[in-house]
Amino acid sequence: MTVQPFVSPDLIRQRFSKAMSDMYREEVPLYGALMELVEQTNREVLAREPQIASQLHSTGEIERLDMERHGAIRVGTATELATLARLFAVMGMLPVGYYDLTPAGVPVHSTAFRAVHEDALQVSPFRVFTSLLRLELIEDPELRAFAQSVLDQRSIFTSEALRLIEQAEAVGGLTESEAGEFVLQALETFRWHHSATVTAAQYQTLSAQHRLIADVVAFKGPHINHLTPRTLDIDIVQAQMPLHGITPKAVIEGPPRRQHPILLRQTSFKALDEPIAFTDQTQTRGSHSARFGEIEQRGAALTPKGRALYDRLLNAAREELGDFPNEANASRYNALMTRHFSEFPDSLEGMREQELAYFRYFLTDKGLMAGRPAEVSLQALLRDGYVKAEPLVYEDFLPVSAAGIFQSNLGDAAQTHYGEHSNRQSFELSLGRSTIDELGLYAETQRRSIEECLKALAR
Ligand code: OOG
Ligand code: NI
């Protein structure tokens, strides 16, 4: 009997990401237009800025740039979340980070499923921002019970997907043909459905409570609501969007424009109004908007110290603005951000020396050719040109930015105040496992890169 080898989870994720992108392109034509704009902008930036090109070559990011994207979904129950965690695990995606969106008036808390090792990220950086609706925040007990009962009746996974998850868990992987089938079956969970699970009136009641609640409760599954490509210059894309008939949100979320980008900058455009058939309708007479477009630019991952500085400056700018950023105050907000962030060093040396960002270390040509250097401290190796430091790219999300993206797509009417506090413990209880601390992952990648340099130089 020949034993069939397993397909690596990284390759399953790579295939799934491609399949998801193809499905989304077919369902949302604007996504194709956006992808083209981003690809064209990236080509221009690489041609214009040899330094960025060389940096992306050093880190290998150039190879993943075109396949880089994240999606987002929202689920309604603990069982759905826990099963999703098992589904993503088949593709080597683990829950990283905890994001509480309730302080910003969005009744969810979230994590990001993604690969955790730099080698795996290199094969496919695909990530999914996954939110769990906090039903306990619905005050009206009757409505809460109704929402719960609707959710309890649905099954968001195909039976074949569930079988393949169990198979992978039982034997430790999937064979070639199983992996192919798994990708097709898993995709079904994320598909858009034109028919709802509730009547038009029930939808209205849910929506009146919060549009997000209607989005999660009234449908057969957690449709993917956006798929975001990575651009090398988000300001260019933001400026170009209107020329392509796309209206972006008023401000770019995240840090201001810098010479050396940090963390994550994001912008989005409004959700599409899509025809829906409610259960008391035979035709698609109603409508619902959930799917929107988003673009992001990624920069250096920050250390706890760098992140604390980022949070402080962001809060200071927002406090001075005195309101959520919007159309009317956008230019004032941008000016405030630039002013406050002038305190954040904008050079690689500055960020490295003050330990504000994580870096990856690589041997230079000199290092590759050299014999064993006399001094092997990292400082000396950098000074003498044996190794070079490149910023480690941020792979995660930002809660304030995510809230801004949610808000702009739900409309301002959705700004509710929730007194309830962050509850990572209850999220992890629903998830069925703990979430991984992203800072630990960056520190590990940085440490491994130093170790590899030293090992190579010792030979
Ligand atoms: C997710 C919004 C957050 C991001 O990139 O921060 C987000 C959602 O709307 O479900 O996509
Ligand atoms: Ni997003």
Characterization of the model:
Its EC number is 1.13.11.93. The protein has a five-stranded mixed sheet with strand order 2-3-4-1-5. It has a two-stranded antiparallel ribbon with strand order 6-9. It folds into two domains: 9-299 and 394-436, Roll (2,3-Dihydroxybiphenyl 1,2-Dioxygenase, domain 1); 302-351. The two termini are 44 Å apart. Strand 2 and strand 3 form a beta hairpin. It is built from 20 helices and eleven strands. Helix 13 packs antiparallel against helix 14 (330-341). The mean pLDDT is 92. It has 459 residues and is of the alpha+beta class. The protein has helices at residues 9-27, 29-48, 50-59, 61-64, 78-90, 118-123, 141-153, 159-171, 176-188, 200-209, 211-217, 234-240, 304-321, 330-341, 348-353, 365-369, 378-383, 399-410, 424-431, 438-458; strands spanning 69-75, 94-100, 108-114, 127-133, 226-229, 264-269, 273-276, 286-289, 293-298, 359-363, 387-391.
